[in-house]
Protein: NADH:ubiquinone oxidoreductase
Organism: Photobacterium malacitanum
Amino acid sequence: MIFGLIMLLSVVAGILSGEHFHSFMAGFGIAAVAIGTAYWLAFRTTRYPQLALLMLLVAMMAKLAITVTGVVWVVKAGVLSSPFVFSLSYLFFSIVVSYAYFKLREYQMSVVEKRNTIVFSSVKKPSSTVVSTVMTAKI
């Protein structure tokens, strides 16, 4: 349901910004790369839990650097025809990409949880001990 709504809004926004399509796609591209990089950096696994805050700060700085670099590059190339369309596109797609990455993370965690549940519940515990006696024949 939510995926359909996101797709509908994306298509409608793309159609409505048809005259400024390059600004729309620049906002989408920069938002996707910046949020993807920030997500990748922020949710890395590390042996040291003390680095979690540092990883979040590095992710925030990387997102800011990618956004600023992307905007400067787009303005220098003359692709940005409407700053308003660009800013709305960047805002919308940063929310959408964040939602998508968190849904992906939620799915990955549920798969790991199911796998651990299956592994831990499939361990067979002995219910009874069978003692066998060995019969030897005397010759």
In short: The radius of gyration is 27 Å. The mean pLDDT is 83. The chain has one domain: 22-119.
